[in-house]
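Running co-folding for adenosine-5'-triphosphate.
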Amino acid sequence: MDNLKNLRGTVDLLPDQLIKWQNVEKIIFEQLSRASIKEIRTPILEMTELFIRGIGEGTDVVSKEMYTFLDRGDRSCTLRPEGTASVARALIQNGISSNPLHKLWYMGPMFRYERPQAGRQRQFHQLGVEFIGYDSVRSDVEIIAIAWDILGKLGIKDLNLEINTLGDVNDRLDFQKSFIKWLEINKKFLDIDSQNRINKNPLRILDSKNSETKKILENAPRLFNFLSEKSRKRYSDLKKQLEDLKIPYLENSNLVRGLDYYCHTAFEITSGALGSQATVCGGGRYDNLIKQMGGPNTPAIGFAIGLERLILLAGKELEVQRNTDIYIINQGLIAESLAMDLSRKLRNYDLFVELDLSGASLSKQFKKANKLKSKSIIVIGEDEASNKEFIIRLFDKSNDENKEEVISFDNNIKLENWINNNLLLK
Ligand code: ATP
Ligand code: MG
């Protein structure tokens, strides 16, 4: 039989790689907590209908990229391709109207059937942040600042924040009419994908990556020219507030989110270091989604960061793990049981303690401790075990003399002093 393999577009994250993931996640969690944003966890598997209604049939995600199947009860199920629809559903289902303001985040795997390449997988991970019930420009600014600061805290440089405004529903209806007219006239110059979108999702054509199409679009009607005074004012307020916060931005009038429920602010954060999969964060305001999904009229704005792309951008310093504080070398039956007991006691001091379970020779165990760069070791050989004591030795890089002490198993005070002076106060 052939060896079993993982599915194309999915990856195993191995312990060494996960050091960086965990460091990145820790910084993200801390930053989100500092901004009082609360976590929400929704199921990975949902009814297919949720995404058809919550993302839209005309989108690539729904029309081409979903992992959809019938379960044993003949229900159509889909592995979530994104998080916003599920968050909206969960809030509606759990009584959103009792508390209309929510600042939420989620993190986890998403699934899209796409062509795998660097920075693009079929199972990938997103961090999403959603502000539900907030309609002010200030909430747009705060959410952009949160995305920007997370990337900043991770030490990622050379990022571009691109912003655009989509206006409100009425602005867009006016634009859409004249845009579709223009598209029909210029249809033959557009790439096939864009031609197919004219009736399904015309706004998304603005986002085309095809260079010919991009060039022709330069002569198309401009959404901005159809915006009401109020929408324009909202956009200039947004820019002013970003400037006040010294968050640099670029305006990109082709940055769109193709669906009806998106409005006003759309933004992306990109990095040249990512090659063609340049977008690390995408976000926008979706004031009409919750209503469209059957909930009360609730404005909202959110973003999602692709974690694989974030990990590619985050620096090498995040690949380092805290060293083991104490490595316990032990040999002989009595020593093994004393060592087990001691390891549990030491972990109560918040120390990183590794108990050697190999049963190998003492010298092999020493080698392992060295390899791990453990800050200290405890040795319990047969002699120590019969004396009910252990040797604890600190490796001091600045000094060839390694500090060593013999402590008896019942002398907790001596042990505690040693830990405090040598491991915790460092
Ligand atoms: P793209 O244009 O790269 O396909 P998108 O518009 O489909 O992105 P969103 O749905 O806005 O992306 O998702 C937000 C972020 O999630 C993206 O900016 C990206 O960082 C990440 N992302 C999306 N799809 C994938 C994928 N297949 N593999 C890895 N990351 C992804
Ligand atoms: Mg995509």
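Result summary
The mean pLDDT is 93.
The radius of gyration is 28 Å.
Job closed.
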